[in-house]
Amino acid sequence: MQKLLILLFCFFSFITLTFAQVDTVTIHSNAMQRDIKAVVIKPSNYKKVKNFPTVYLLHGANGNYQNWVKKVPEIIEYANTYQTIIVCPSGANNSWYFDSPIDSTYKFETFVSTEVPNYIDTHYKTKKDRKYRAITGLSMGGHGAMFISFRHAETFGACGSMSGALVVDVIKKAYDIEKRLGNFDPITNDYKQWSVLNIIEKYPKDSLAIIIDCGMQDFIYKMSDSVHNKMVSLKIPHDYIVRPGKHDWVYWKKAIEYQLVYFKDFFNREKEQIITKN
After folding, report:
1. pLDDT by residue (tens digit) across 252-271?
2. In 61, 80, 117, 270, which residue has its Cα 20 to 30 A from 54's Cα atom?
3. Using CA of residue 65, residue 247, residue 181, residue 57, what is the dihedral sign?
4. Cβ contact 79:125 at 8 Å
5. Cβ(125)–Cβ(164) under 8 Å?
6. Distance (Å, rounded) from C-alpha 106 to C-alpha 29?
7. How many beta carbons lie within 10 A of that of residue 244, not counting itself?
8. 2 in a domain, yes or no?
9. Structural domain of residue 174, as residue ranges?
10. How many domains does the chain have?
11. pTM of the model
């Protein structure tokens, strides 16, 4: 009996040490005066390591903060593999990660760019530097990640997009765009100032590491391609990946692996520079 208890203790200790931990947290938004959920994935060696880089992972339209851990449970183990804290905040119902000019209850640019990182840096063992923060997402979340990182490069050093809906000014009346930005008007409100395709024209003084990928059979593939081509013309350094795939979780399940490898390399660059200087 004693041997059995010892074996069980060793087994559960092994499980605890091996698997990453998933927290569901509630973050109060002062900007919106409400509490909002997020998932936080910690590597299994969290208690033993001083601090970790952070990847913020955004969901798509009609999604929620639990999408990534439910649809791609492998990301729980990726926190271990890539030694990073992964944060999946809520973008609510089609927020587009904008601070809506017409609805004060939708201030998700402020929430994701400022309030969530402040909460995570306060409550978790993070490396509190833009060089150790990345943000990416799928579809609407791809747009959100690019939109926020270009406008808040003081917070994020790297960004990505998976099947990103990067040209919102062609959407006009769908996915609640008009509820966030007001009715489309080609003269007074054409949405261009809110679109990543145009946001990239104002490249931040703090350089960004950028990765964009999209499946060739994706119905919004041309959006990613348009942003890539414009970045080429603007001489903005970035990685661009095109592979077979549609606008679905089969594609995103693989895409997140590519992006986490890219971000891991980005985080390591700073570490290698510090070692070289010393």
Report:
1. 999 999 999 999 999 998 66
2. 61
3. positive
4. no
5. no
6. 10
7. 8
8. no
9. 21-277
10. 1
11. 0.91
